[in-house]
Design goal:
By secondary structure, this protein is an all-beta fold. Among the domains are: about 80 residues, no CATH class; about 100 residues. The protein is built from no helices and 26 strands. The strands form 7 sheets. Strands 20, 21, 22, 23, 24, 25 and 26 form a 7-stranded mixed beta sheet that branches. A 4-stranded antiparallel beta sheet has the order 1-2-3-13, with no helix packed on it. It has a 4-stranded antiparallel beta sheet with strand order 4-12-8-9, with no helix packed on it. Strand 8 and strand 9 form a beta hairpin. About 5% of the residues have low confidence.
Length: about 400
């Protein structure tokens, strides 16, 4: 019996042979048979004519207020104002919405239905057991498998469920891809305890990634480890140990730096070498210094001398100098300021012209009065004294006899 298919069909066009009862769909290259739509799969679409306004083209498709998702425009049949619309021409489908080519006019009526899912004759319908199918090839089994109830299956040993409170369980790993696994391996090094959420094994090999917590022992190899705090009894580092953002280092024992110590970046602040030499850029302050200071520079050693050229009142600074050279002219009186008890001082007096030199009451001489120094020009005299008292009660300088070197 010949079947007269229509000429120039569009992709998705459906032809029903009323004689045989079979339905066919044009794929673009051939007519593919499929079973007729079940009445139970046909759904009447909700009326959307209330939203027709002459400008809107996109409308939601629902049935009994539930969204429907046609697989193609050919799966729904639409009528606007009594005229059947051509799928793919007058409208297209986008998910659960219909998009009209021209906006329906307000007041026009609407009727639509979902024709259901067309099933290929070589497709097992949902709910079928497939017991009558034979000679099926792998290429004929397509699409997602439905949920299968395996409660009636035999010869299968169900595995343990890793659930809370199930205690320590064995994890069985197998490379078996066919046949039946009748027995698990006898080793039980790999276990999972869901109560403590712990996976245990005798040995882990390979790269371990992610974050770990707790304690670890016997770590070997050359891994890169990043941790927050390190607490231990002893640590040995063979490479460079770098501290970043460390404000304090607290050690209750000895710190050994075999190659020396550097202060600041690359030792810009100072260094202490391994053989004990120390060099500092800044100020070094200490209560006491011991040892040979002969190599020290910028240090004043011995007496400090001040030179005074004047007439009238001549004031010796007993704080800044211990030796005072006075070039006297005319009538002069020598006095003083500052000083510390017990300090010894000398005054060298050189006359420049005729000079009469006397001393303030701070000076105490053995004779009870100031000595008479030579007045001729070029005369040289030496007076030595020790500070007996300064500050409250007045300064006292215990002077010896003057010596005339003229």
């Amino acid at each position: 019996m010949a079947i007269n298919f229509p000429n120039s069909p569009g992709i998705g066009s459906v032809f029903v042979d009323t004689t045989s009862g079979f339905s066919y769909e044009w794929t673009g290259s051939l007519w593919k048979s499929f079973s007729g739509n079940l009445v139970s799969n046909i759904k009447i679409l909700d009326n959307i004519s209330g939203s027709f306004n002459g400008s809107e083209t996109t409308f939601n498709l629902t049935s009994n207020s539930s969204a429907v998702n046609p697989v193609s425009a050919q799966q729904i049949e639409l009528h606007v104002n009594g005229v059947q619309q051509a799928p793919g021409v007058n409208y297209t489908i986008s998910g659960s919405t219909v998009v009209f080519t021209s906006p329906p006019t307000g007041g026009h009526t609407f009727f639509g239905k979902l024709l259901g899912t067309a099933l290929s004759l070589n497709t097992i319908a949902a709910g079928s057991d497939g017991s009558g199918l034979i000679n099926l090839s792998a290429g004929q089994l397509t699409g997602a498998l439905p949920a299968i109830d395996g409660s009636a299956l035999t010869g299968i040993v169900a595995g343990a469920t890793l659930s809370a409170g199930s205690g320590s369980q064995r994890v069985v790993l197998t490379g078996q891809t066919s046949g039946s696994m009748t027995a698990a391996a006898t080793d039980a090094e790999l276990t999972y305890n869901s109560g403590t959420d712990t996976l245990s094994a005798g040995t882990f090999s390979g790269a371990l990634t992610g974050n770990a917590s707790g304690t670890a022992g016997g770590l070997t190899g050359t891994p890169d480890i990043t941790i927050r705090n390190l607490t231990g009894v002893a640590a040995t580092f063979t490479g460079l140990l770098t501290y970043e953002d460390v404000t304090n280092v607290d050690s209750v024992g000895f710190i050994t730096a075999r190659a020396g110590i550097k202060f600041g970046l690359a030792g810009v602040g100072g260094t202490i070498t391994a053989d004990g030499h120390a060099e500092f850029v800044g100020v070094c302050t200490a209560t006491k210094y011991f040892g040979d200071g002969s190599e020290l520079s910028n240090i004043s050693v011995g007496l400090t001398t001040e030179s005074l050229v004047s007439s009238g009142v001549i004031t010796l600074n007993l704080t800044s100098a211990q030796d005072h050279k006075v070039t006297a002219t005319g009538i002069c009186t020598i006095t003083c300021t500052g000083g510390s008890e017990g300090d010894s001082h000398t005054v060298r007096i050189v006359n420049s012209g005729i000079a009469t030199v006397g001393f303030s009451t701070f000076f105490l001489f053995p004779s009870g009065s100031s000595p008479a120094l030579p007045t001729s020009t070029g005369a040289i005299s030496l007076v030595s004294f020790t500070i007996n008292r300064v500050g409250a009660g007045g300064t006292q300088l215990l002077a010896g006899a003057s010596v005339n070197f003229s």
